[in-house]
Amino acid sequence: MLGKMPMHLITITSDLGTRDYYLAALKGAVITQCEAVVPFIDISNSVKAFDIKEAAFIVRNAYRYFPKGTIHIVHVNASGGSNKLLLSVADGHYFIAFDNGFLSLAFEKTPHETYHVNDELMGDSLIYEDAIGKVVNFLINEYKPTDFAHLTTETISYRFLQPITNRGSIRGSIIYIDNYGNAISNITRKMVDESMGDKPFTISVNVANTKTISTNYNQVEEGEMVCLYNTAGFLEIAINKGKAEKLLGLKPDSAVLVMAD
């Protein structure tokens, strides 16, 4: 065991919601298993049930704002994990997740330093709260991952669909709908710059279109469609003071087209 280090932060992203006891049970188990004060920060517990793509988008864009050494618990689609708990070390952060493809989506491929937590730690709970608590306890006490897990390359992997880009055209899709009903696409600023250059272009979603990428929502009239790059650099489709999801009929996988005029 290595020497004690400064206290780790612990984040939770889950599809457990807040109505039932499941989230409280998870937090309680982690607190019970740990030998130190555990500072929890909830990233989101409102991930749609079993939706690892939504969880991956949220965690990928949130974790970098936390200090290195943070432990991120991702409790989404536990039943899809084949009773396997994984620990990944990426960019100086720890990620505890199930073997259901989440890690490959969050990092474009499963991180090289990914460990399969030893089976004897798993127990028979449906939400594996004690096993997660034990892993957190090992980490905050500076155990090496190899003390309680083993390196693995045999994990479930998926990939987000990538936009089809050509000179003068991009065919992408919606990958996330946020709490405001804004629709975030998989098209990035870099893709638009490289494909369109200095040419004028039109962005089309369903029956709506615009020729402008704004820098804030208020650059269009209230109730009108606005397109802008969000803080993660993705093209976002929104309605000023409205919900693009409902008013434009958008949902994950809806098509987004950027075409040179």
Features:
7-stranded mixed beta sheet, Elongation Factor Tu (Ef-tu), domain 3, 8-stranded antiparallel beta sheet, 261 residues, alpha+beta, single chain, Rossmann fold
Describe the structure concisely.
With 261 residues, the chain is α+β, with helices and mostly antiparallel strands.
Show the helix and strand layout.
Elements: E1 10-14, H1 22-33, E2 40-44, H2 52-62, E3 71-75, E4 85-90, E5 93-98, H3 102-106, E6 114-117, H4 129-140, E7 149-151, E8 164-166, E9 169-177, E10 183-188, H5 189-196, E11 201-205, E12 208-210, E13 225-229, E14 234-239, H6 244-247, E15 255-260
Parallel strand pairs: 1-2, 1-3, 3-5
Antiparallel strand pairs: 4-5, 4-6, 6-7, 8-9, 9-10, 9-15, 10-14, 11-12, 11-15, 13-14
**Number of separate helices:** 6
CATH evolutionary superfamily of the largest domain: S-adenosyl-l-methionine hydroxide adenosyltransferase, N-terminal
Classification by helices and strands:
alpha+beta
What fold name goes in the CATH topology slot of the largest domain?
Answer: Rossmann fold
- Using the 3D structure, state the CATH architecture of the largest domain: 3-Layer(aba) Sandwich
Hey, roughly how much beta strand do the residues contain? 25-35%
Level of helix content? 10-25%
List the uncertain runs.
1-6
Number of domains: 2
Q: Give the SSE string.
A: EHEHEEEHEHEEEEHEEEEHE
